[in-house]
Design goal:
The chain has 390 residues and is an alpha+beta fold. Helices cover 42% and strands 15% of the residues. The protein contains 14 helices and ten strands. A four-stranded antiparallel beta sheet has the order 1-2-4-3. Strands 5-8-10-9 form a four-stranded antiparallel beta sheet, sandwiched between helices. A hairpin with a 5-residue loop joins β1 and β2. The two termini are 30 Å apart. The N terminus is likely disordered. It binds flavin mononucleotide. The site of flavin mononucleotide has 18 residues, from α5 and β9.
Length: 390
């Protein structure tokens, strides 16, 4: 189908779906409970290494690819590698964001170990750090050492309720100095943490950059297709993969069931589907009372991991303050089409360093239900002990 065809079909599909008794088709669009079981089961693991990993895999990570492989072959140790089939070469050509996700994973792992009275001694890149591209060598070797002196981390209790929330936030609940102080404290001192609340003129400047970078990601075939390939539309697909970008929108699900949602080509930027994507992002961007960012002085592999660790802590600290967040990495990405926005955001908030994280932050409007958790593949996938099906 050509791009114009996609537009016509999307428009026509609304009518057609209604005509076909869409309610019946729509059933099955929603998030299946099995796909999110990992969130409820993490605390039930007895063995300390499994307990730590069951929490680590709840870490925020780009496109929810969960590209982690754990090896429990040596007692008391956890070897960790990246699954090279689960990287995002178009949006994340150098694997910077993937390593931030690995950092968030390590942070949650260490917190979970501490909750059980174990100190996690984390050795980064025991076989050598990757060069310009990521590799399949271990990114960390963790030793868990029982230690009566290890202090449990109060942020650990927030792990099951942390969410990435991509909805509009309450502009009547500004992000104030107390929020900023709590989030900065959680980030720790090794990286620079910054935050702009609604009265800060930088908020409007960031909004403009974020919008444009989002539009470019949609309009660039390689980055758009990278997302299209990991769209999981409706309950059955979400449950089968338990990764990627979950779509529970009944209309899109219905079109998919009717064979009218073409994922083999990027729709044109001026198509109805894309215009809706842009309009939705504009709306949530307008409903953003603040942004925060994490900046490292250099951009080494260890600093990328550290930035991910800091981000995980900030997100957990947000839960305690009733705040949710939504990373907007588009302008921080390193593919050429977005170079102008990369320069603009660095000029605005980078202060000579590398902006590793930029995220919306705010509170949900009163009465809004907490978002459902994002799917997780669970421990068997992480340990490579999954039963093969089909
Ligand atoms: C380094 C990094 C970059 C991310 N970038 C984005 C982003 O640009 N847009 C977005 O919607 N989510 C982004 N996310 C959030 C992930 O999509 C999210 O963590 C993942 O889907 C799992 O969902 P959860 O955080 O609710 O568990 C990012 C997360 C990380 C760690």
């Amino acid at each position: 189908m050509d791009r114009k065809g996609f537009l016509r079909v999307l428009g026509g599909g609304v009518v057609l779906a209604a005509g076909l008794g869409a309610v019946a088709v729509w059933r099955g669009a929603g998030m299946p409970q099995e796909a999110t079981a990992a969130w409820r089961e993490a605390g039930t693991e007895q063995d300390v290494r499994r307990f730590a990993l069951a929490h680590a895999l709840l870490a925020p990570n780009p496109h929810n690819m969960q590209p982690w492989i754990a090896d429990l072959g040596t007692d008391g140790q956890i070897g960790l590698r990246l699954d090279m089939q689960r990287l995002l070469p178009a949006t994340d050509p150098f694997g910077r964001q993937i390593l931030m996700g690995a950092g968030a994973f390590l942070e949650l792992l260490a917190m979970a170990a501490a909750a059980r009275g174990y100190r996690a001694e984390i050795g980064l890149f025991p076989d050598g750090a990757p060069g310009e591209r990521l590799d399949a060598k271990r990114f960390a070797l963790v030793r868990l050492i029982q230690d009566a002196a290890v202090a449990p981390d109060p942020l650990f209790a927030n792990v099951p309720s942390r969410r990435t929330d991509r909805r509009g936030y309450d502009l009547g609940r500004p992000i104030g100095p107390e929020d900023a102080a709590a989030l900065a404290a959680a980030a720790g001192g090794t990286l620079r943490f910054g935050l702009a609340g609604a009265t800060d003129p930088r908020v409007e400047a960031i909004r403009a950059i974020a919008r444009e970078a989002w539009r470019i990601e949609l309009a660039t075939a390689a980055t758009m297709m990278e997302s299209m390939h990991v769209l999981r539309v409706g309950g059955a697909e979400i449950d089968r993969h338990r990764d990627g970008i979950s779509i529970t929108d009944p209309l899109l699900f219905t079109l998919m069931k009717l064979g009218m949602f073409d994922r083999s080509a990027a729709p044109a930027i001026d198509s109805a589907a894309m215009r809706k994507q842009v309009a939705d992002f504009d709306a949530i961007t307008a409903a953003t009372p603040g942004y925060f960012w994490i900046v490292s002085d250099g951009n080494s592999r260890a600093q990328q991991i550290a930035a991910g660790r800091a981000f995980a802590r900030v997100a957990l600290a947000g839960v305690s303050r009733g705040l949710v967040m939504h990373p907007n990495e588009q302008s921080l990405q390193e593919y050429p089409e977005v170079a102008t926005q990369y320069r603009a955001i660095h000029a605005l908030i980078g202060a000579g360093g590398t902006v590793q994280m930029l995220a919306r932050v705010g509170a949900l409007p009163a009465g809004t239900a907490v978002a459902e958790p994002a799917p997780r593949r669970g421990l068997p996938a992480l340990l490579g002990t999954e039963k093969m099906t089909g």
